[in-house]
Amino acid sequence: MAGTGIFTEILDGEVYKYYSDGEWKTSSSGKSVAIVNPTTRKTQYKVQACTQEEVNKVMEMAKSAQKSWAKTPLWKRAELLHKAAAILKENKAPIAESLVKEIAKPAKDSVTEVVRSGDLISYCAEEGVRILGEGKFLLSDSFPGNERTKYCLTSKIPLGVVLAIPPFNYPVNLAVSKIAPALIAGNSLVLKPPTQGAVSCLHMVHCFHLAGFPKGLISCITGKGSEIGDFLTMHPAVNCISFTGGDTGISISKKAGMIPLQMELGGKDACIVLEDADLDLVASNIIKGGFSYSGQRCTAVKVVLVMESVADELVEKVKAKVAKLTVGPPEENCDITAVVSESSANFIEGLVMDAKEKGATFCQEYKRDGNLIWPLLLDNVRPDMRIAWEEPFGPVLPVLRINSVEEGINHCNASNFGLQGCVFTKDINKAMLISDAMETGTVQINSAPARGPDHFPFQGLKDSGIGSQGVTNSINLMTKVKTTVINLPTPSYSMG
Ligand code: G3P
Asked: Any idea where the Aldehyde dehydrogenase domain is (predicted)?
């Protein structure tokens, strides 16, 4: 159970503690932040409302701990990460339980998230050992006008303090996808979890604590974004920010200083369906892509652009599958569970009502109970409807009928977002041309969009983000290149 067994020390009465200087602490604010269970809409957990002074303290510790961590051999850093991964996986049950209660993620998927996170940490440790264990050696005489008098040695060095801000939908996985690359590369790490997802993150951080990382190297600050959000992101000690979430990321990037940013800010992933597509395959992928975790994924299929000639058949197939989706509590592994908050449910409802007023065809009756919204497929959506462009982050999927491939590509490219997209066709040549024409960070051919496997590059164009994620790219983003040049008095050619 969450907060029990090895996790007892992270709880102070009914409020979870924050993690600073290698210890679990109660904030001097005397205040807490409530975490509302999306299913029951009642307070499930409470976390500390940390103060700006506590942020300052954590930053100070992070700066000094990083100096010695950077001098810790790479193999030792990797060993500790492997240990943390093992502890995390051993304790998947209580962590998954808090995911179920805080973010209403179905129980099975919650366990998958924790296991996937352990695997990511281990993969990152191995990848770090490989890519950080080698540098480059350049010779000057390849550039015009130079003799071989300069030997240039390059290696990758840490940035310093990395601030990680994961989102509510993958609080554990998208936290470790930032923590593990930062640590293996020799950085220290300050984590600011989302309010919903904070308790899962605190449990995950305790696994790193138990693995024996040095004091102050990892910290976890909880509290209200309105009180400590800007203070954290604009803190002079921060040398890199890795953020996943909504358009808050755009304001963070405007305020952040001259530091590397890794931002993933959502998408409106299009699914383009051509006339020759395998419609059963498309229908299964629309269900998986559009309705997994009730559509609360950046990479969810968020608009279907289907050729008119096959649209009726596809819509019928998807409708039949939607009818089979189970709706209810995450504890019972229902496919569709409550969305994360009442304001999110209200936003989704606003998009649905706009589509209704403007004449979309409802393939199911619109139904809502509290934060629970039944899955809904909207056919005959037109570009003047908000749902054609905005991301509901819920179980509502619009279908736009198109008369040409160009129309589909144009719709996809007119979006402010450019995370992923997918195209279904049996013609690989056409698929490649469409992929090249789509202005998105990734295009999936004959499958729904997805970030994983976690070592694949993951990036968005336009308002979908800055920088690229995936294990290798994250390690590289959290390092800087350092060079040392050996200058010789006379040219030297080996074996010359
Ligand atoms: O919404 C976060 C985004 O990273 C999605 O990940 O694994 O569901 O494709 P995934």
From this structure: 24-483
pLDDT of 481-491, one tens digit each?
A: 999 999 999 99
Q: Which two tokens stand for residue 300?
A: 């969810």
Residue 376 region by backbone torsions, left for phi larger than 0, else alpha for psi between -120 and 50, else beta: beta
Q: Do the bridges between strand 218-220 and strand 376-379 make them parallel or antiparallel, or are there none, so unpaired?
A: unpaired
- Identify which of 293, 296, 451, 468 to mutate to test ligand 1's pocket (most ligand atoms within 8 A of the CB): 451
How far apart are the C-alpha atoms of 231 and 31, rounded to whole Å? 18
19 C-beta closer than 6 A to ligand 1: no
Among residues 54, 97, 127, 264, the one annotated as catalytic is 264
Question: For residue 250, how far is the Cα from the chain centroid?
Answer: 15
**Ligand 1 mean position to 358 CA, how many Å?**
31
**Nearest atom within ligand 1 for CA of residue 458:** 4
Known catalytic residue at 264 = yes
CB burial of residue 332 (10 Å; 0-12, 13-18, 19+): exposed
Global pTM value: 0.97
pLDDT in tens, 375-425: 999 999 999 999 999 999 999 999 999 999 999 999 999 999 999 999 999
Smallest CA-to-CA distance from 243 within 217, 265, 222, 223 is with 265
Task: Tell me whether strands 376-379 and 361-362 are parallel, antiparallel or unpaired.
Answer: antiparallel
Question: Ligand 1 centroid vs 244 CA: distance in angstroms?
Answer: 10
| Closest C-alpha to 58, from 249, 196, 223, 255 | 223
Largest Cα–Cα distance of the chain, in whole Å? 82
Q: What is the DSSP letter of 225?
A: I
For residue 469, the cross-strand partners are: 458
E strand or H helix at 12, and its extent? strand 11-12
